[in-house]
Structure formats: structure tokens, C-alpha cells
UniProtKB/TrEMBL annotation:
Alphabetized InterPro entries for the sequence: CHASE2 (IPR007890)
Pfam families: CHASE2 (PF05226)
Record-annotated CHASE2 domain positions: 32-121
Name the UniProt record assigns to this protein: Adenylate cyclase
Length: 143
């Protein structure tokens, strides 16, 4: 059996140090580029991710999973994001009508809904000292 020798055994001491230094510099550059989202590093990351996903994905997509995507057509029909909470609730209710096993939302809502009727009422009272009321609005859900 032939004994394997590391590549470093074939390099001179100086070549090994140059190789090590270049490798470390490259690793630091890629790491920093990934942290600050440099375009070439981000593009390389996407290409690698897409390639790995394509190679490891099962042959056929699951037929019992449906992803509801808010696309440009939806935005043109309903209005730009962020949508008011009532519109998101209506979408969830419409999806729930299909009796799915689960509904998952990947949405970050860090601020209060400025389009809620109670918020509009408070804003008008604060800014204009006007009391307003709304008729025909659905009751506020409990909880």
C-alpha cells in the first residue's frame, strides 16, 4: 500500500508559509465580505446555496404542502406592503377556509398597526381634538 503524504511535505518551508498566509487572508476576506454583504460574496453564497439545494432536494416536491406567496400581482391588486392587520387577517381566514393542517406566517410586525380603527380614533382625538366613531365595522376579536 502506498503511503500518502500531505501536500505540505512537497512544499518548501517558505512556500508553506506563503500558502498558509494567503489562505488566511482569503478566509478573512470572505468572512468580512459575508458579514457586510458584499455583492460578490453574497452572489457566491446564493450560487453555492442553490447548487446544494438542487443536489440534495428530493426528486419530487411534496404534494400536500402549499405556499401562499404575496407576489407583485397581489401587491398591484391589493396595495403595497405593509398591509393593515385586518387585510392579513382576511387572508389567513381565506386560507383557513380550505381547512389546512397548519398555517405558518413569516412576517415581522414590529410596530403598532397605524391603520386600525382604534388607532385612527386616538390619532384624531390627539391631533384634532375630534371624537369619531365607525359604523358597520366588525367587532374587535376577544383576546
Amino acid at each position: 500500500m502506498q503511503r500518502l503524504h500531505p501536500v505540505s511535505a512537497k512544499l518548501s518551508r517558505r512556500q508553506a508559509w506563503v500558502f498558509l498566509a494567503a489562505s488566511l487572508v482569503l478566509a478573512v476576506l470572505v468572512g468580512v465580505g459575508g458579514l457586510v454583504q458584499l455583492a460578490p460574496v453574497a452572489q457566491l453564497d446564493r450560487v453555492i446555496f442553490d447548487t446544494l439545494q438542487a443536489q440534495t432536494a428530493p426528486g419530487q416536491a411534496a404534494r400536500d404542502t402549499v405556499v401562499v406567496d404575496i407576489d407583485e400581482v397581489s401587491l398591484a391588486a391589493v396595495g403595497q406592503w405593509p398591509w393593515p392587520r385586518y387585510r392579513i387577517a382576511a387572508l389567513v381566514e381565506r386560507i383557513a377556509a380550505g381547512q389546512p393542517a397548519a398555517i405558518a406566517l413569516d412576517i415581522l410586525l414590529p410596530e403598532a398597526d397605524r391603520t386600525s380603527l382604534s388607532e385612527i380614533r386616538r390619532t384624531f382625538k390627539r391631533d384634532f381634538d375630534v371624537d369619531i366613531s365607525f359604523g358597520g365595522a366588525p367587532p374587535r376579536p376577544a383576546g
